Amino acid sequence: MPDAIAYDLQGDIAILKAQNPPVNALGHAVRQGLIDGIERAEREGARAVVIHGDGSTYFAGADIREFGKPPQEPHLPDVCNRIEASPLIVVSAMHGTALGGGLEIALSTHYRIAVPSARMGLPEVHLGLIPGATGTQRLPRLIGVDKALDVMTTGRQVGAQEALDLGLIDRIEDGAPGVNGLAYARQLIDEGAPRRAVSELPAPAPIDWDATYEAVLKRGRGQISPAMCVRAVQGACELPFAEGVANERRIFRELMDTDQRQGMIHAFFAERAVGKLPELKGVEPRPVAAIAVIGGGTMGSGIATSALMAGLSVTMLEMSPEAAEKAKGRIAGNLSGALKRGKIDQAGFERLTEQALTLTTSYDDLAEADLIIEAVFEEMSVKKEVFAKLDAVAKPGAVLASNTSYLDVDEIAAATSRPGDVLGLHFFSPAHVMKLLEIVVADKTAPDVLATGFALGKKMGKVSVRAGVCDGFIGNRILSHYRTAADHMILDGASPYQIDAALESFGFAMGPFAVADLAGLDIGWAVRKRKRAEGLHPQARDSSYADTLCEAGHFGQKTGKGYYDYVAGPKARVPNPEVMPLIEADRAAQGITPRDFTDAEILRRYMAAMVNEAARVVGEGIARRPLDVDVTLLYGYGFPRYRGGPLKWADMEGLPGLLDDIRAWAAEDAHFWQPAPLLEQLVAEGRSFEDLNKEAAG
Ligand code: T1G
User: Fold this and answer.
1) What is the atom index within ligand 1 of the atom nearest the CA of 129?
2) Which of 45, 288, 468, 678 has the fewest CB atoms within 10 Å around its CB?
3) How far is ligand 1, taken at its centre, from the CA of residue 120, in Å?
4) Does 331 score more than 80 pLDDT?
5) Model pTM?
6) Is 104 a catalytic site residue?
7) Is 214 an active-site residue?
């Protein structure tokens, strides 16, 4: 096992090279190696030290896997302070992503050089924390409070050029970081450059701390660590450095003990674990360079946009030249957003729209596509007709995917002679923005076709989740259930506005009724009509207020009115006064005497319904693990990330209490509140959803 920090003395310059793949995380051996290396350089009479990382990056931060365990000395802040205190000139040579503790190490050195592609930042707020190794004390001294708080409270990455402009680094040099660092150290020695201890810079100018704290807290929508950055930086301005560091450490340790830190660390590892499936081990995906998309509506155009941005060539098939041109217009509109945001330049925009995109109205032009995604009308007969045509024209080995959001992919596959090549690729609208991709595996889907779906998702920058075939797969099936719980509460006395407010204070960006207005109430209307046509369970409660709202032409934001009135714009939505009378009439027609609901009961019922259906989805194998449900709800349904996802939240809430509530509510509605067998089993065995995740990881 190579040393975590390799030591080499080149003349009078010591080189400390981190060798802790894959990201040179600052685990215990690395921290100890840095201290030992600095002390050895001083003993051996070096005049400067260069610190850099082997492999893909400079230190990418503290080792997140150590969180929650008893911290081991040397603690990172002490390593930082020891580096800075060295009488030698210490140089950081950065590449890759110097993040969190990694940037804090760099801030404790006296000079910083980076390659042009280097990125750096303090993303601790994305883990429910604040920088905990003097970053909140050194960064404001180097670049000022406002810029330091922008970097810390957003957790965003800063590119090398911006870092140079901010004064965060001293120089940008292409080439090998170690070589750059050595040359820079040589120059500094020859010039007699002084040590530059950031901690000795004057305390930064203060700002209105309370106003800033409140503003950041509001922006965090219930997440607390960004606002706590403000208090740590306030300490940098008001306290001597050592006391400021102690204040930072206190805040850091308090946050380390919060549910929010647990939830966000769970989300971090879950979004990486979700693509690790036993059925993918050792399975090579089929090569995909050219794809075709059938149907250039909102979804098809979004998918095509996402594929074009990922470097794929796209053939868009529509029913007529006019429809194809309209699809191209939608794609160009999507890409102009990327152009405005600087993700592509004008030349890139023209290449994507004029060369990489081909329009056609003939299925024959799909014959060379490696993968074809159907995004036509959500009607099984239409899908079957499309797949029968694809079966006739697509080349052998082409992957045939449906973007259906709930239809039976087995039935679609059966419309072809090659069901092994068929799978579902359920993108979320807008497909060029939303990161979630449900990859739906049909009975006969070949393993390498599943692997191809995951490879395509990765190339398109999606977070892909494997789903089994059922009505709604993972996300929409669970959504349908917790939305029903909300509808029941409406019938029984709650208002859409109280429910939205309760869920928004829980951390959802938008409550369910505001979301319905955004998506379009006609979508839910069509689902209710379909489910009624399929035959509702005799004990299933039904309602008419939402249908009546749609019959009046109110589909939400797209018609200007739904549950809310958008006359003053989406941000200034106000309750639509036509809604409550419809609800009251519905209650009266069903002989219901409305009662009051507390926000706590609303949240408890809403979340219990979500957890209960999620437990069924995992129990039936539609989702491989509880973490797959968490990732789906985090990336596709606005679930607050600092709660980790519904099943992580359930573990922290306590499964026994949730099951007790579900059983109590079953007395009033045995059909809706049927406890999921898996939930009952876990409670009986004293286990958690996290236990299932760990078992799946082996
Ligand atoms: N600790 C432990 N493991 C880590 C890790 C970390 N900091 N970062 C990544 N990994 C693992 C990851 O789980 C995966 O493992 C593998 O490395 C590749 O990661 C005191 C307290 C660096 C931009 O938040 O943003 O410092 O799945 O798939 O796409 O103030 O990883 O292969 O088994 O993401 O190339 C602050 C988090 C920590 C950085 C690379 N640092 N990491 O992205 O690879 S808190 C972070 C990332 C801190 C101090 C505080 C990304 C990356 P496996 P990957 P990637």
Assistant:
1) 21
2) 45
3) 13
4) yes
5) 0.94
6) yes
7) no
